[in-house]
Amino acid sequence: MNNDNNEIYFSKDIKELVGTEYGDIEKHSKFMKLALNEAKKALDEGEVPVGCVIVHNDIVIAAGSNKTNIKKNATRHAEIEALDSIYLSENASKFGGDKLLSDCKLYVTVEPCIMCAAVLQLAKINIVYFGCYNDKFGGNGSILPVHSIDCFERGHPYNCVSGVMKDQAIHLLQKFYFQENKKAPVPNKRKRIDPDQMINNQDNSSIDQPIDK
Ligand SMILES: [Zn+2]
Question: What pTM value is reported for the model?
Fold first, then answer.
């Protein structure tokens, strides 16, 4: 599980890395802004706003935004969309997808989920920069450290840098959930049922059971 510098693959906040090659906030923010633009596109399309770009030698070679609703496919996360645009491009056939991606940085507004974290290992991405943490499904340290697990036969562990423009990423998510909450109907007050009454009732099927959601 060691990289070339004999260190465990890390997931660290960019502020911890200032002064190293990973901690150039100005440079990495420039690319994260482009990922945020992708996330804004997702927001405009009614998707959970997550966006990413893939960078090779300081040039953006792919971009993607979350399209799970539009494509009715729960796997179409921003990272998968961006990777597909490389695998399906002429560059992939010219350089080989894995060879190309092993020299690429991926910038994504929200920590990759466990699925995407594993896919990025298989794609042999060089490094991942992300904005805010994904507290429910994060695969770069929040829930599972998939980036650093050396268990995939064809995979390659990678380092992660968090906290790049995280406030902007969180702001977009808040905007999305605010919009969704406005659309949701006002819930009826739950009907409280005395458990003793339920036992005494001959026809339990007619009882209006509370549903937890
Ligand atoms: Zn994902």
Answer: 0.82
